[in-house]
């Protein structure tokens, strides 16, 4: 819901959800009804989903295991391909915008929040960057925004993929190399400092202590030209190969699944203990 006296963001967002539904894209939020007016509010009806990856990361102690992150990568890359197949650039990928389903869909990852999304702007020729439709201001979330967002460049497929790469690193490490930049230094805002750090950092430093597949991911993304689509299948295959190399079982058992199961097993024993302790002699 949003007040009608505020700028309308829901109408555009509902347009993208409707477009994705027509494309029968898996793991996209179902729209029950598009934007409508109810008294002094604009209202959009959406299906109820489960917790976000941000919530689940902290439920699991602040970071996730390599197995869980690789399971996430496999599904999320499919969601990004579906989004890009419809000519949509998300422009605000972060752990908060990946939600788990509910019930039978509990192991399915959904991509949500199209509030900053826009249709892909094609550039003439085959440029590396395109400045013909620059943003007026920074768009996205500082920690996860691509370099293009900091430079106010028109964002494209590879920029969504870059943002998602930062999401993966954050889920594994609970920090990014620029996470501590929260105050203005030397006249530079945190946003400017982060943008500079993202442009200067080497992939070896960015992916330090992680399997080589993460560096390979960024190498592929950074090699793409403005109009070029990522090789989604190749990226998924690389993560799948690492999953197999680590000896993990593709059982859709995430870290939070195990934690909930252990808590559920422990609860009856704790209840029995409390009942026994409080009984009369």
UniProtKB/TrEMBL annotation:
Membrane-spanning regions, if any? none
| Keyword Chaperone carried by entry | no
InterPro entries (UniProt xref): CK1_Ser-Thr_kinase, Kinase-like_dom_sf, Prot_kinase_dom, Ser/Thr_kinase_AS
Instruction: Report whether Methyltransferase shows up as a keyword of the record.
Output: no
Report the GO molecular function annotations: ATP binding; protein serine/threonine kinase activity
SUPFAM superfamilies named among the record's database cross-references: Protein kinase-like (PK-like) (SSF56112)
Q: Which UniProt keywords apply?
A: Kinase, Serine/threonine-protein kinase, Transferase
The name under which this protein is listed is: Serine/threonine protein kinase
Q: Which organism is it from?
A: Aspergillus kawachii
